[in-house]
Amino acid sequence: MIEKFLVYLFFSFALWRTVEEEPPFFVPSDWPEPSYYFEGNPLTKDKFALGRSLFYDPILSRDSTISCASCHIQFSGFTHVDHAQAHGINGLVGTRNSPVLINLAWLDQFNWDGGVGNLNGHSINPITHPKEMDNTMEEVLKRLNNSPFYKKRFQEVWGDSVIYTPYLLKTIAAFTVSLVSADSKYDRVKNGKEQFSVQESKGYRLFQQNCASCHTEPLFTSGELKKNGLSYDVEFKDAGHALISGKKRDSLLFKVPTLRNIEFSYPYMHDGRMKKLKEVLQHYSSIPKSKVSVSKELKNIKKPFTDEEQKDIISFLKTLTDKSFLYNREFMFPKEER
Ligand code: HEC
Ligand code: HEC
Q: Is the CB–ligand 1 distance for residue 225 below 6 Å?
């Protein structure tokens, strides 16, 4: 009897340990392999937890007022619903809408213009951007190295008594790469657990015919840069990928955003110019022929969509809402003793 109990104790302890050791990242069944190079930054529960602390900590910004989460708020899919363009330090306003942070492990280019090729290095951009956190890496490292709270935790994760830039960047990436959303109604329908309504089914069919070539399932983005027919915004003069490549023909090429949790990630587009999904559908319904350049996938789009069809597509898009992601406790502001 006692032996049985001991065996039971042993296994429950082992199970508890493995549960504790697991960071929340996972690859949903039938999804493609992630493109993130996990061997270069092995995930652990502690690294994820430390990345989470940093994500929510304004210590990264020059005047300690802005954290990553100021612009990337969980319940909107890690974007910022109040602002069309990002608001950073001293209330300064950038030119672009904060993108959602969802399923980043499957992407290999970042930012609206695809200007960053590696998630590990990405955080340097917001930390040093004059309108976002306006800090220097030297200053951030100094603060972290002077903080007993962070020093101890970095030591546990990286086995080093000094915190260096790669540790910091890879730790933040351990958090952002773990933000997997794959539990929407759409996913449950695909897994045979639920069914679409008649309207959602009609919307899904229209979506597959007209949108999925760029907003490709199951990620709802092909991860590529495309022109979706938006007019050039004279206020921001944002030419998209042309700013990176310097080539005129890349003007207005933007990264195809995922549509997962799109119901809550408004406003839409790189500059947040559209507040409602209805406006998005009206846009795709009325891209002027030959006036603006569009990628080939949009040349054969059904036009215009009737009011009914627009509503059908929107009802399908709402099946991409994943409440268990938007309210996942593991991604929230961490409660911790300092
Ligand atoms: C002031 C608002 C602001 C702050 C603070 C901020 N971001 Fe962002 N983030 C943005 C904007 C705007 C973009 C798009 C930038 C672009 O396209 O040039 C972006 C892009 C990203 C991307 C690329 C996503 C994609 O799909 O391409 C990641 C990842 C990201 N931010 C993570 C972070 C992290 C981590 C922090 C904290 C270290 C942070 N951000 C701080 C506004 C912000
Ligand atoms: C040629 C590829 C392409 C096709 C086809 C396409 N889109 Fe897009 N979509 C994009 C790109 C690129 C953007 C981002 C453009 C920007 O911000 O400048 C975008 C943006 C969006 C957004 C805003 C997302 C956000 O987070 O801001 C929604 C919603 C959307 N598309 C829905 C659709 C629907 C619905 C269809 C079909 C009717 C469709 N798209 C067809 C490429 C495409």
A: no
Q: Is 70 in the pocket of ligand 1 (CB under 6 A)?
A: yes
Quick check: bond before 304 cis, omega within 30? yes
From ligand 2's centre to the CA of 82, what distance in Å?
20
Model pTM? 0.94
Question: CA 315, CA 317: separation in Å to the nearest integer?
Answer: 5
**CA 280 vs CA 100, 266, 310: distances in Å:** 17, 11, 9
pLDDT mean for each 10 residues of the chain (338 residues): 52 46 91 97 98 98 97 97 88 94 98 97 97 97 98 98 98 98 98 98 97 98 96 88 94 97 97 97 87 84 90 98 98 90
C-alpha distance across the termini of the chain, in Å = 44
Strand 254-255 versus strand 225-226 pairing type: antiparallel
- Whether residue 259 has its Cβ less than 6 Å from ligand 2: yes
- The per-residue pLDDT for 302 is 78
Please report the domains of the chain, with CATH numbers, ordered by start residue: 29-180 (1.10.760.10), 185-321 (1.10.760.10)
Q: Which atom of ligand 2 is nearest to the CA of 265?
A: 26
96 lines ligand 1 (CB under 6 A): yes
